[in-house]
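Dear colleague,

Thank you for sharing your sequence with our group. We've completed the structure prediction you requested, and as agreed, I am returning the results in plain text so they can be pasted directly into your records. Please verify that the sequence below matches your submission; if there's any discrepancy, let me know and we will rerun it promptly.
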Amino acid sequence: MPTAVDIHTHLVPKGWPDLAATCGGEGWPWLRVDSERAAMIMVGESEFRPIGAQTWDPATRRVDMDADGIDLQVVSPTPVFFAYERPADQAIKVSRIFNDLTLETLAGDSRLVPFCQVPLQDPDAACEELDRCLAAGHVGVEIGNHVGDKDLDDAGIVAFLKHCAEVGAPVLVHPWDMPGGPRLDRWMARWLTGMPAETHLSVLAMILGGAFDELPESLRICFAHGGGSFAFWLGRVENAWNRRGDVVRGKSQYPPSHYLGRFSVDTVVFEQPALRLLVDTLGEDQVMVGSDYPYPLGERPVGEVVRRADWLSEAQQVKLLSENALRFLGDRTGRS
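Please find the predicted structure tokens below.
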């Protein structure tokens, strides 16, 4: 059985077709290759993010995994490619392109577990693409935390999540498309404050919007980056649910704390007090190692925050390092 699983990493293929010509529209991401091991993701004429060979080369990934003591990596898309803001027919095409490139890039490596992307703005098409990807070799799906002004309690997104439960596909929710503006376009503030807030809002939407009450308990869903700020502010939400239920309760049938066993989070929180808060609030069965590899805001060595946690018992460390992730992934990986 694997002793350490990283459920939150990303991939970018080393090149893809001209998306404007293939999918229609303008302003698509493209890759400026600067050297054999370095490239820049471009969006239109703007530089979005520098990347290295770790994003496209499985051999480089394996070297880093061995150095960090990681046996399995879940490899998900980079959210800039989701295309939820575009017409559905364009998002369908780009999803197929990047999902196929993911399988081609990973080349069946048994240590790398592929998650697909879907055109979430069209729930029926999203279900079709998920089914196609599962049949082709993907194990689960990564989705963004919203589609425009639609949160995860939107009826169409709930229908997609029901389908994920029916077919046994684990779901990783990743924040994306964070609000910008003069106050947030400094210091990477959209990533440092916007991502935690977006993820917090997504968990609230599933609770207060009644999504968890509609969805089967068999749904396996994980929120990236430690679930954002949700664990820290659970007490505030619970207090508001009880004191201002007229406006806070929404469609939820129970207080927010009732739903804590319905979702998992990763450990991309870096410090011991934050990890302890996750374990104390959500429970030792709902937290699992994630890193955000290979991006610079991720954790390296991967899993270090768990391995340094001398307040965890040996059994608890095993849960966070591997057992919880293997349960989340289910039997599609062939590992148990």
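Summary note from our side: The mean pLDDT is 93.

Kind regards,
the structure core
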